[in-house]
Amino acid sequence: MATSFVYNRVNLSGVPCLESRSITESATAVTFNFDASPAVSPRFSGLIAIRIAEQVATSADALPVFFNVPSVAGSSIALTTFGGTQVTGVELETGVHLVFYDRGNGALQLLV
User: Which of 7, 21, 34, 80 is 20–30 Å from 97 (CA)?
Assistant: First the structure.
């Protein structure tokens, strides 16, 4: 009996690095904005090193976090934990984080 394995090739050209350019805080969400990157396209799937340069305001600590990366989805993507729980402003500090973008599910997961 033959077994079929479904796999995706990810990060064929290395791990892209992106840096947040601005932050938008509304009454319902915190959105980190990034420039479009040729290393991260709509067909991209895999690991991304993210540098968060802005601190979330204390008043937005409980709000869900979204990433606006125009070259990936063309719109904001919710940032979740590995288990699928929405990341909030208090959980995302300035510095470098590792995230995984799953194009098939449209999920962006915070790993570290």
Answer: 7
Is the residue at 105 inside a domain?
yes
SS3 assignment, position 42: coil
Cα(3)–Cα(72) distance, integer angstroms: 33
Token pair 């606006």: residue: 68
- Tallying the residues shown for the chain, one arrives at 112
Q: pLDDT tens across 65-112, in order? A: 999 987 776 678 999 998 889 999 999 999 999 999 888 888 899 998
CA distance 65 to 38: 24
Domain containing 50: what range? Answer: 17-110
Say how far apart CA 60 and CA 28 lie, in whole Å.
9
This prediction has a pTM of: 0.82
Structurally, the chain folds into a number of domains equal to 1
Under 8 Å between Cβ of 57 and 12: no
Q: What is the per-residue pLDDT for 2? A: 53
